[in-house]
Amino acid sequence: MSIKDRVGEALAFGRQEELRLMRAVPTRARTARGSSQQWTARDSMIHQAVWKLVFVQAMENPAVAPDDAGPDEPDQVNQVIFASAKDLTWGETEALLTHAHQRTLGALQRLEGVALENPALFPWLGGQPLWRRLLGSAILHPVVHYALAYRQIGMGAESLRLQERVLEAMDAVSPSPEWLGVGRYNLACAYALQGETDQALARLTEALRLRPDLTAWSKQDPDFEALRSDPRYQALYAQ
Fold first, then answer.
1. Whether 183 contacts 190, CB under 8 Å
2. Alpha-helical segments (H) within the chain
3. CB 3.0–4.6 Å: which of 23, 35, 85, 234 could bond 46 by disulfide?
4. Is residue 153 within 8 Å of residue 24, measured between CB atoms?
5. Under 8 Å CB-to-CB from 114, ≥6 apart: which residues?
């Protein structure tokens, strides 16, 4: 199976998880209005749809980088997104997500597989192949917010199952340690946030073995705050 096929399957998986979450959101939560500091599930879905479209625009127009929206001031950009979309209905939110997914698939189909693996295709790739940045935008970033949405609607266990399903799906895309390490790191974060200390430490240990370059950030990652006093966590950095 080609990298293009594997990425296509991953995008289909991401879309199914997106739809699963939307079906799970209770009616009362669908009409709830959040604030710029406290997003609802609807706000998170809109946020993801907009950032997916920003990334696809960069794929379609090499003169535009996905970071042009303001990478140095993400909070400010997110505030603009929130303010501009705060009155969208649930139906309009669903339509926006459908549009973002279809446009992402369209951009993928127009690319050759070799382009997906070319880290020099666009100047903004930062040395990474396009497929990694694409899946980061279309799946890995959204999943973080979707896991939070599950916790907000009282489905913390489903939040963890989502992360576990994502790890399995993402592992199928590439066997490289760089890629596998990202998935395990994200799952370690999810376990830590749910108070699953043993699982969090096991996944974090795997992640740092595969991706030693994540070590420095993991020491300050707020997701691991509850692990700081655990001797097993401290032993990871004793060498």
1. no
2. 3-24, 27-30, 41-60, 74-85, 90-109, 113-116, 130-135, 141-152, 156-171, 177-193, 197-210, 215-218, 231-235
3. 85
4. yes
5. none
What's the whole-model pTM score? 0.86
Quick one: tokens of 220? Answer: 């300050």
The answer to whether the CB of 182 falls within 8 A of the CB of 211 is yes
Positive or negative torsion for Cα 204, 221, 170, 123: negative
pLDDT of residue 66: 66
Label residue 230 left, alpha or beta by phi (over 0 means left) and psi (-120 to 50 means alpha): beta
CB 213 within 8 A of CB 232: no
Q: How many CB atoms lie within 10 A of CB 215?
A: 12
The token pair at 176 is: 């490289």
Tokens of 58: 């960069």
What is the spatial distance between Cα 150 and Cα 25, in angstroms, rounded to a whole number? 8
Cβ atoms < 10 Å from Cβ of 165:
15
Residues of the chain with pLDDT under 50: 68-73
Contact 227, 192 (CB under 8 A): yes
Name residue 189's amino acid: C
Q: Exposure pattern of 175-184 as b/e (b: 16+ CB <10 Å)?
A: eeeebbbbbb
- For residues 56 and 107, the answer to whether their CB atoms sit within 8 Å is yes
Task: Quote the pLDDT of residue 65.
Answer: 63
3-state secondary structure of 223: helix
